[in-house]
Amino acid sequence: LKINDKLKNRVAVGLSMQSMNTETLSDIKRKNWTTQEYLEFVEETRKRGKAATSELIIPLPGETKKTYFEGIKFLMEHHIQPGTYTLMMLVGTELGRDAAIKKYGLKGKWRILPKQFGQYNGKKIFEIEQACIETNTMSFEDYLECRNFSFVLRLISSQTFLPIYKLAKKLKISWFEISLELNTLLKDKNFNGKLKEIFDNFCKESHEELFNTENEAIDFYSKEENYKKLFKGDIGDNLLGKYSALGLLNIKDVISTIFYIMKNKLDIKGSQKLYKIL
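Structure (tokenized):
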């Protein structure tokens, strides 16, 4: 904050949480600030006109779907924009070693790093990472559900929806509850629309980007037809960035869906004058 003030409020500021679960923090030998210290810090960033952001990593040891959603709820109810990243099982790090893999039941799959490929001396080269997709406390299915929910969070955390966020606050509607209802609606097979199509494609590609081995991923992307798709950005891209951008390109559908949820799915406690806006 001192550096930010010296540079005339030009520094991006975020909270490095990784997890809100105390058991998880203990397992990864990490000690965060106290809740009160974080809230005081958020207040200081707000005084400077900055939006507070924070990232969570899944699936860390000890984290469950329940603790992940509880962490998201805590951050959003304190007006902190959460982002979610997948745990990378990097060689040489503790969570990439055999002892930790065995202890926490870590299971990984392989995926390409966005934009990290090319042809050198006539040979196709790919940067492939091992992403953790399961632990002994979070199943693969739970990981995918948390990952899919992270798309909803990324989309509605856009500053584009700030006016609706402010309206929701006046109506005493939780932005977290809106995100939950939106996630539930998008998972409903009977729900239709462009946003539903975007969500389904995100879920599909999030699953299909994962390979059982590094060689399997390399062989797939080495095929000429797949390499062309990779080069065009049709596959192998940053999925959260790609699909949240598609969501914003179809913003009317997103806004109408959010208003539908606010009007029909949640208990509104604001004034009738504000309710009429919906």
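The mean pLDDT is 90. Residues 122 and 222 are 12 Å apart (CA to CA).
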